[in-house]
Specification:
Distance between the termini: 18 Å
Structural class: alpha/beta
Radius of gyration: 19 Å
CATH superfamily of the largest domain: Thiolase/Chalcone synthase
Mean pLDDT: 98
Bound molecules: coenzyme A
Helix content: 25-40%
CATH class of the largest domain: Alpha Beta
Number of domains: 2
Largest sheet: 5 strands, mixed
Number of strands: 13
Order of helices and strands: EEHEHEHEHEEEEHEHEHHHEE
């Protein structure tokens, strides 16, 4: 089996910044949002689609890897907010990239989307079927947010990307631990517009095309399942938490991440965050964070990285990576 590593990264978010005081009109406040969620501001699209964001992030990742679009064999996009229900967002991005040698498809795992998509890309390279895989996590939750409600504070728009390639060196992805549990499906959902409840005047009047979230259930589930999957991957690979240099988690809220770190005995300085500037960009969080850290030369050879995600479904998991 071949070793698979991150050859290049990129990210892109819309220029439009929305600060917390914007939400005073729905009964929220900067103090409430920052204290619980760790968010100061987020980027909100003013017309750019999910594929526009993903395309820009993807192009930057290809350039950063020192490749051209013709080198990409496979393009996989993690998104819960594709430009259209059909075809896939990956096909939209493929067209924009003019990467017509690639196979392109989406993966749906909402906030765990990037991690699940990376795991798919890694398997294709390990098996020898493909050499260079472009993984993009891109979302514009602004399109599924009811801006008249208080829970409009949680999300922002953005995209991150990475090129995965094989290497002879002793580095890259060591392992993944992934889980899903569909019994949690009601706790974060968009009830209208699918085959169960096709779009009609009633679904629109009932505002069922916006996300519905049970914040308490998300919180309690995240702080339970993520520490368990971190401990699972560490035990499976004979690692202790002290051997991990950085955790790159999904960015739901600072309180969730602080509690996860406490439960696995990791000093919070090792947990990387950027939700203060982007909020939760769903599929975008881990690849955007990775790109920022990569471009600021945070990692040195042999650093151990732990990726961790949790999202609607439920879906959750972890990955171990040697830089
Ligand atoms: C949403 C969340 C912060 C609520 O925390 P909590 O303190 O348990 O929340 P409660 O529902 O008990 O509300 C606490 C208070 O904040 C208020 N509140 C809730 N949402 C608010 C908002 N957006 N702005 C201001 N106040 C808000 C409540 O009315 C309540 O006020 P009260 O004490 O006067 O009654 C927490 O459950 C959470 O972080 N959940 C995870 C959400 C998430 O990460 N989603 C992303 C999906 S991956």
């Amino acid at each position: 089996m071949r070793n698979v590593y991150i050859k290049g990264t990129g990210s892109y978010a819309p220029a439009n910044i929305v600060k917390n005081d914007f939400f005073e009109k729905v009964g929220s406040s900067d103090e409430w949002i920052f204290e619980r969620l760790g968010i100061r501001e987020r980027r909100i699209s003013t017309g750019e689609t999910t594929s526009d964001l993903g395309y820009k992030a993807g192009l930057l990742a290809i350039e950063n890897a020192g490749l051209t679009v013709n080198d990409i064999d496979l393009l996989i996009v993690a998104t819960a907010t594709p430009d259209r229900q059909a075809p896939s967002c990956a096909c939209f991005i493929q067209e924009k990239l003019e990467a017509f040698n690639t196979v392109a498809f989406d993966v749906a795992a909402v906030c765990s989307g990037a991690l699940f998509t990376i795991s798919v890309g890694v398997q294709y390279i390990k098996s020898g079927m493909y050499n260079n895989v472009l993984v993009i996590g891109a979302d514009t939750f602004s399109n599924i947010t009811d801006w008249s409600r208080r829970d409009s504070v949680f999300f922002g728009d953005g995209a991150g990307a990475m090129v995965l390639s094989h290497t002879e060196e002793d580095k890259g992805f060591l392992d993944f631990v992934l889980h899903s549990d569909g019994r949690g499906k009601e706790h974060f959902t968009i009830p209208g517009g699918g085959s169960e409840n096709p779009a009609n005047q009633e679904t629109i009047d009932k505002r069922q095309h916006y996300f519905q979230m049970n914040g308490q259930e998300v919180f309690n589930t995240a702080i339970d399942v993520v520490p368990k999957s971190i401990n699972e991957i560490l035990a499976k690979n004979n690692f202790s938490i002290d051997q991990i240099d950085y955790m790159l988690p999904h960015q739901p809220s600072i309180k969730i991440l602080q509690e996860i770190a406490r439960r696995v005995n990791m000093p919070f300085e090792k947990v990387k965050t950027n939700m203060d500037r982007y909020a939760n960009t769903s599929g975008g969080t881990i690849p955007i964070l990775l790109d920022e850290l990569h471009r600021s030369d945070t990692f040195k050879p042999n650093d151990m990285l732990l990726f961790a995600a949790v999202g609607a479904g439920w879906t959750w998991g972890t990955a171990l990576y040697r830089w």
